[in-house]
Structure formats: structure tokens, C-alpha cells
Amino acid sequence: MQSASPGARAFEQGLRVANIFPYRVRFTKRGRLRFLSHHDLQRLFERALRRTELPLRFSEGFNPHPLIAFPTALGLGIESDDEIVEFELSSWFAPKAIQERLGAQMPEGCAVTSVDVFLRKDRSFIDYVEYEAVSPGQTGGLRAKINEFIAKKECVVERKSDKGVRDIEVRQYVMALDVEGEKVLMRIRVTDSGTAKPDEVLRAVGIEIRADVRIKKTYTEVGVR
Q1: φ, ψ of residue 171 in degrees (nearest 5)
Q2: Beta strand segments in the chain, E
């Protein structure tokens, strides 16, 4: 017997679980939107989803809001070809129809690239992310530095935040690192205990984070536990 499609399984599950239909949206964040904070991005999507007039599921309480979740937070100033937001509807809508409605509400630089259903019972998580960083004039001799970094068991860098400065061991998170021309390519593991930031990996191999260094997330891998 042929197994049901993910959409059909999610539809059936929604009927069994109080008409809850979860959707996962992949979108871009380019151009001037790279300076949009995570909080402002949340508000952008909440307003856009409300304007679609889709049957959104809301939280309970005195100030109900749409059930929207961002599995990862993108660093300020970083562009992305593959961000993720998840939300729930109270009735079934075809992913293509959602993509068209939501895409029509997005500002320049934020394009909806796909909409998929997923099963609520599956514990999805971000497994890893990939970045590319254009580093003009800084990649000469970088191959040797990358090989040296990969050979290390540990590499500690400083992470500065509003709470102060602390040491982060970044080698454990780097799954792959390469250079192509003036681009540095990175695959960074995301774990429950933490991850490395792309600028931290760049600094670990000797790249100076100058104004002309442009970092972009190119892919987000979702896993299921």
C-alpha cells in the first residue's frame, strides 16, 4: 500500500489534534532587511500573516497573538537565502495558496521560497546551517590556515555581548570549512548547548571582520528526533 504524503498525514493529524495544522515557511532576508532585528522580524511576520486573512491559531490569555516560531535567530547585518518561520492554522490550506498569500505581503528583500506542512508529533530541530562570506583581499594563503584549523581539537575565541566577554570553543561546531576565490564557505552545527557564529569562525582562521566582509546564510538543515 502506498504511504500517504506529508500533506495528507498532516491533514489527518490536524483533524485528530483539535484542528491544528502546522506549516513551515522558508524565506529570504536580503538587502536592507539584513539590519532588521529579530524582534522586528517577528512583528513583520505577525502583521503579514494577519493581512493574509488565513485562519491563524492564537495563544490564549488577555493578549492573544498568532502562534509563530522562529527556530533560529539570524545575527544583525547578515543576509540569508534560507530562513525559517513556523506557524499554525485552525483549518487546512494548500501550501501553494499560503505561499502566494503570504508572499504578496512581504517587503522587498523578503521572498517566500517554500511552504511545507510538518507533523507536530515530530520533534524537529535545526541540525546545521551553511554560510558564505565574501572577504575581499583576505583569502590569500587561507587554505593553509583552514587546514590548520581543521586539524585542531579545540579553538577558543572571545564572544562579546551585552553581558560581557566569554570564551567560546568553536572547533566543535564546524562541520566543514572551505575557500573559493574570495568566498569562505562554512557549515556550522547547531546544538542544544550552543553553536558558533560565522564571524567567530572567520576570526579563528585569521579573517578580519571589516566593513567589506559580507556574510550570508545559504542553507538551513532541519532534522527530526
Answers
A1: -60, -35
A2: 21-29, 68-69, 79-89, 112-117, 124-134, 156-161, 164-169, 174-180, 183-191, 194-195, 214-224
Cell numbers describing residue 20: 491544528
Q: What is the pTM of this model?
A: 0.87
Q: Name, in order, each residue with C-beta under 8 angstroms of 181's C-beta and a sequence gap of 6 or more.
A: 139
Pairwise CA distance, residues 136 & 197, whole Å: 20
What are the structural domains, with CATH classification, of the chain?
6-122 (3.30.70.580), 125-224 (3.30.70)
Per-residue pLDDT tens digits of the chain, which is 225 residues long: 455 565 656 555 554 556 889 999 999 999 999 999 999 999 999 999 999 999 999 988 788 888 999 998 898 999 999 999 999 999 999 999 999 999 999 999 999 999 999 887 777 899 999 999 999 999 999 999 999 999 999 999 999 888 889 999 999 999 999 999 999 999 999 999 999 999 999 999 999 999 999 999 999 999 887
Specify the pairing of strand 124-134 against strand 214-224: antiparallel
- For 11, list phi and psi in degrees, rounded to 5: -65, -45
| Spatial separation of the C-alpha atoms in residues 62 and 204, rounded to whole Å | 48
Q: Using an 8 Å Cβ cutoff, are 29 and 76 in contact?
A: no
Cell for 32? 536592507
Q: Give the other-Cβ count within 10 Å of 223's Cβ.
A: 12
- With a CB cutoff of 8 Å and minimum separation 6, the contacts of 97 are none
